[in-house]
Write a structure and sequence with these properties.
It catalyses: Thiol-dependent hydrolysis of ester, thioester, amide, peptide and isopeptide bonds formed by the C-terminal Gly of ubiquitin (a 76-residue protein attached to proteins as an intracellular targeting signal). The chain has helices at 9-19, 22-29, 45-58, 67-71, 73-76, 88-109, 118-123, 159-166, 286-290, and strands at 125-133, 139-146, 149-151, 170-172, 178-180, 185-187, 189-197, 201-206, 226-228, 243-253, 261-267, 273-277, 280-284, 294-301. Helix content is 27%, strand content 27%.
Length: 303
């Protein structure tokens, strides 16, 4: 368990999920970043995360505290403030981006031209966006890199439904017409998103905090431990059909993004689920996990 250092449940829950992210844990336990980095004793975000994950598996104590990461919280996000409740998904995004930048700096120093860092290899994927002009049938296509998916859940009962809605074709018409380069005019068009390259670790955020007043969508969204994305892959994708298994979730308890409490469930390498509620850790069943109103889901590829 992780000691709450003062409204740090959002930090603790995210750290538990990152600790049990298999490829990230393997990389950190081998010390592959700190061996190359001269920032091991300073404020390198990846070195801090590596040290945190290593301590979780190495030390024999029931409760620890992420003191160093908490001390250097603004290294991950300058606007974060100690003692203030922050958003778990926002922290996760900033932590992944900060560690990705640390890896990129190492590669640049080593004169490596590739921008494919270990964080991108773990969490990164590509969405393909295609737009069909309905006047001349011209097709425009581009790839966008992503590190997670954020899904709307308004009037949505299942995760599969939310994913299908995300990839649903969109008609561009009215004030949103498409400027076709071939027609040289504003035209009615159809836009379609698909997955060109699926990530090795798929992070999904359910948009529970959509009300600008801070309200929360607290409905239960049904999800499963197995997830298949083959029906949403691009036709020209070189990726094999990806199948995923759930290994961690973050839950927000409360009625507003400005308050409440975060806790996590993680699955250990033997397949046993645990509820990680700050310093309290207890065994949990799969049925308990699936009954939760989850906020963030973590899936890892089966192969």
């Amino acid at each position: 368990g992780f000691k709450n250092l003062g409204n740090t449940c959002y930090l603790n829950s995210v750290l538990q999920c990152l600790t049990y992210t298999p490829p990230l844990a393997n990389y950190c336990l081998r010390g592959q970043h700190s061996k190359q980095c001269d920032g091991a004793n300073s404020a390198c975000p990846f070195c801090m995360l590596e040290n945190r994950i290593s301590r979780s598996f190495d030390i024999e104590v029931p409760v620890d505290a992420p003191q160093r990461i908490y001390k250097y919280l603004q290294t991950f996000a300058k606007h974060f403030r100690a003692g203030r409740q922050e958003d778990a998904h926002e922290l996760l995004r900033y932590a992944i981006d900060a560690c990705d930048s640390a890896c990129a700096r190492l590669q640049k120093r080593g004169s490596k031209s590739s921008d494919q860092t270990v964080m991108k290899e773990i969490f990164g994927g590509f969405l393909q966006s295609q737009i069909w002009c309905l006047s001349c049938n011209a097709v425009s296509s581009k790839l966008d890199s992503v590190m997670d998916l954020s899904l709307d859940i308004v009037r949505t009962k299942t995760l599969k439904e939310a994913i299908c809605n995300f990839f649903q074709p969109e008609v561009l018409d009215g004030n949103n017409k498409y400027q076709c380069e071939k027609c040289k005019k504003l035209s009615v068009a159809r836009k379609q998103l698909s997955i060109y390259q699926s990530p090795n670790v798929l992070v999904i955020q359910l948009k529970r905090f959509e009300n600008f007043l801070g309200g929360k969508i607290d409905t239960h969204v049904e999800f499963e431990e197995e997830l298949k994305l083959r029906s949403h892959m691009s036709k020209n994708s070189p990726d094999v059909h990806p199948d995923y298994s759930l290994y961690a979730v973050v839950v927000h308890s409360g009625f507003s993004q400005y308050g409440g409490h975060y806790y996590a469930y993680v699955k250990d390498p033997r397949g046993q689920w645990y509820c990680c509620n700050d310093s309290f850790v207890s065994a949990a069943s799969s049925a308990t996990v699936l009954s939760e109103r989850v906020y963030i889901l973590f899936y890892v590829r089966d192969s």
